[in-house]
């Protein structure tokens, strides 16, 4: 279940197809169309090779400087055209930022004479932060003394993981680790909730029992209030009822009896007028209704009595209700019943939460065990790569002119798991076979870091989806066989992704698939930088000059020719 499957690496690589520069430093206007393999840029010192890298930095999100504009009458424009190659991370970036995905990525930076800068991706304005985020997906700019990545633990760990080919198991581990983190948070939240419940349990229990014992029914307090008003006015109500009943039924001329007499008088003449029967019928209805009313008045009066004891009982009940309403800040019987239900639910939750916590803790242990197994497998795979990595890098270091330099990889188990497993990886370095190994970030010089980074990237290029690699004069200080070996390494890198190298070394220039030459020319009494791609014959001449000087010897020409043929 936890084994690492054989990985078939299919890396999708982005390529810088074209770079256009207008009005930047001593560049008036130039355009470079790059090969998808090894591109070499050469030229005399001061011709403007690194100016090209500076211009490229603008579309990678570096800060703009208006002093780079020689011609203040027009703006500086740097534009790069990239083949996005359908790379997943790039698609996600474009989607996240609502940018068009066209199969071709056009990145442009414009700088006005006043220093104001604008950036565009596929003709859509973007911020500098967005440009910075994008740049890491497009270009890996590797300059002399610019090798901070090598000193970072994340990169060092990624090197071992790439060589171990364990992207799949890392993905599985990180999924399980995040599940464990989520479970741990949920469990901690539940425990905190239980502690809160425990603190409140006695008080909630007291409040619930108080309401439960009160035993109020829906609308009870409102009904009591109405009943009390009636009882407190019972004597007045009873007196009124009796007076009305007396007038209807028992006075010297009761209304009901008087109506009966009147009906008798009309009945004698009912057949003599067509309207009289209807009027007689209506009077009969009134008489019957008044007779019923008199009966109800008598019934109500007979049941209505002033009852001091009941009034006292109802007042006590109402007082209890008002007291509880005030305590809980509510105004109705329904509100009290709702609070009673809430308290009951809280008390029930106290009983249930222990079981929920037990189940969470069980799952937490199970998930942590699963994550630990995967982390152990990842750690074992990393450790298996330590010795091969050390041997290969140290061999390459000797090839590139550092025979006394040694890399050592230190791995150490951490006390707890993190998103990347259970290891701390540290690259240690000894430049002079002193036996004193120190972290790379502390002891390696800029040149040593550059060579070391080149060696490591050449080993992991097949496993890590590196962007276009740009090397800006990292070969300074080497020559001869070391330079030849650097050229071989770069050629190998270029078989797997696009490489652009600015170099002074003929041994590297001879390996190029495309050789660009930077030169100065006088245009309208001003020195300008330009660039052109060299033909095979031109390359032989330029490389010969790099070997022996401005006027190359026949031997240098032959040597240059052999470099290209090989």
Name its key features.
single chain, 566 residues, alpha/beta, 6-stranded antiparallel sheet, 6-stranded mixed sheet, 15 strands
Written description of the protein model:
The chain is α/β, with parallel strands linked by helices. It has helices at residues 49-59, 88-96, 128-138, 153-164, 167-214, 220-232, 234-250, 255-267, 276-303, 308-328, 333-399, 440-443, 446-460, 480-494, 506-509, 536-548, 554-565, and strands at 15-24, 27-33, 38-43, 76-83, 104-111, 117-121, 124-126, 139-143, 406-418, 421-430, 438-439, 468-472, 499-502, 514-523, 526-533. β12, α14 (480-494) and β13 (499-502) form a beta-alpha-beta unit. Residues 1-12 have low confidence and may be disordered.
Short synopsis of the structure:
The protein has 566 residues and is α/β, with parallel strands linked by helices.
**Class per helix and strand makeup:** alpha/beta
Q: Please give the alpha-carbon distance between the first and last residues.
A: 49 Å
Percentage of residues in helical conformation: 55-70%
Overall mean confidence score, pLDDT: 84
Estimated share of beta-strand residues: 15-25%
Shape, principal axes of CA atoms: elongated
Radius of gyration: 47 Å
Query: Major sheet: order of its strands?
Result: 2-1-4-5-6-7
Largest sheet: 6 strands, antiparallel
Number of helices: 17
Q: Which residues form runs of ≥5 with pLDDT under 50?
A: 1-12
Number of extended strands? 15
């Amino acid at each position: 279940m936890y084994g690492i499957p054989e990985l078939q690496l299919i890396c999708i690589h982005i390529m810088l197809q074209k770079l256009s520069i207008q009005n930047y430093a001593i560049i008036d206007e130039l355009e470079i169309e790059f090969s998808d393999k090894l591109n070499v840029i050469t030229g005399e010192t001061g011709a403007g090779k690194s100016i090209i890298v500076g211009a490229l930095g603008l579309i990678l999100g570096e800060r703009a400087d208006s002093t780079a504009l020689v011609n203040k009458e027009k703006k500086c424009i740097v534009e790069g055209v990239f083949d996005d190659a359908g790379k997943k991370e790039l698609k996600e970036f474009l989607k996240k930022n609502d940018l068009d995905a066209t199969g071709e990525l056009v990145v442009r930076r414009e700088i006005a004479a006043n220093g104001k800068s604008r950036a565009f991706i596929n003709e859509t304005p973007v911020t500098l932060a967005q440009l910075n985020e994008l740049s890491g997906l497009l270009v890996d700019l590797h300059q002399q003394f610019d090798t901070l990545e090598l000193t970072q633990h994340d990169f060092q760990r990624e090197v071992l993981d790439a060589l171990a080919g364990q992207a799949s198991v890392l993905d599985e581990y990180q999924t399980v680790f995040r599940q464990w983190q989520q479970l741990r948070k949920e469990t901690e939240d539940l425990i905190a909730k239980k502690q809160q419940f425990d603190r409140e349990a006695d008080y909630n229990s007291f409040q619930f029992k108080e309401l439960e014992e009160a035993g109020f029914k829906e609308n009870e307090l409102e009904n009591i209030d109405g009943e009390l008003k009636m009882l407190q006015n019972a004597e007045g109500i009873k007196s009124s009822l009796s007076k009305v009943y007396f007038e209807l039924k028992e006075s010297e001329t009761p209304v009901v009896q008087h109506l009966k007499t009147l009906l008798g008088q009309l009945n004698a003449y009912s057949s003599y007028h067509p309207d009289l029967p209807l009027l007689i019928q209506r009077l009969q209805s009134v008489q019957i209704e008044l007779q019923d009313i008199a009966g109800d008045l008598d019934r109500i009066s007979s049941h209505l009595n002033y009852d001091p004891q009941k009034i006292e009982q109802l007042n006590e009940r109402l007082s209890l209700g008002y007291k509880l309403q005030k305590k809980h800040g509510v105004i109705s019987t329904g509100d009290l019943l709702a609070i009673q239900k809430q308290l009951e639910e809280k008390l029930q939750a106290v009983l249930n939460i222990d079981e929920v916590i037990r189940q969470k803790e069980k799952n937490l242990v199970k998930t942590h065990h699963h994550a630990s197994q995967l982390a152990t497998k990842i750690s074992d795979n990393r450790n298996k790569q330590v010795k091969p990595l050390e041997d290969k890098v140290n061999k390459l270091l000797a090839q590139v002119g550092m025979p006394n330099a040694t890399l050592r990889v230190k791995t150490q188990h951490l006390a707890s798991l993190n998103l990347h497993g259970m290891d701390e990886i540290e690259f240690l370095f000894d430049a002079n076979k002193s036996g004193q190994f120190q972290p790379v970030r502390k002891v390696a010089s800029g040149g040593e870091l550059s060579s070391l980074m080149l060696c490591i990237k050449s080993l992991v290029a097949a496993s890590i989806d590196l962007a276009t690699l740009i090397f800006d004069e990292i070969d300074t200080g080497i020559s001869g066989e070391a330079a030849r070996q650097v050229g071989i390494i770069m050629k190998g890198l270029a078989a797997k992704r696009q490489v652009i190298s600015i170099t002074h070394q003929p041994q590297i220039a001879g390996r190029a698939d495309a050789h660009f030459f930077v030169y100065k020319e006088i245009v309208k009494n001003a020195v300008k930088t330009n660039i052109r791609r060299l033909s095979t014959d031109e390359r032989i001449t330029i490389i010969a000059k790099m070997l022996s000087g401005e006027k190359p010897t026949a031997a240098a020409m032959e040597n240059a020719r052999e470099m290209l043929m090989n």
